[in-house]
Design goal:
By secondary structure, the chain is mostly helical. It has one domain. The protein is about 95% helix and about 0% strand. The radius of gyration is 20 Å and the shape is rod-shaped.
């Protein structure tokens, strides 16, 4: 494996980790939004 290949491999791994973390963050935002909507509906309905 050449140095260039190794660097590309490392860059791919880092990029995959970043995408994975971003996906988790998006899912967390969706869950929080849903919880907030449910809480708002409960509050509005008394």
């Amino acid at each position: 494996m050449t140095r260039k290949d190794r660097n590309e491999s490392i860059n791919d791994k880092v990029q995959n980790q970043m995408v994975s973390q971003e996906t988790i963050s998006i899912e967390q935002v969706r869950m929080l939004r849903k919880q907030m909507m449910e809480m708002y509906e409960f509050w509005m309905n008394g």
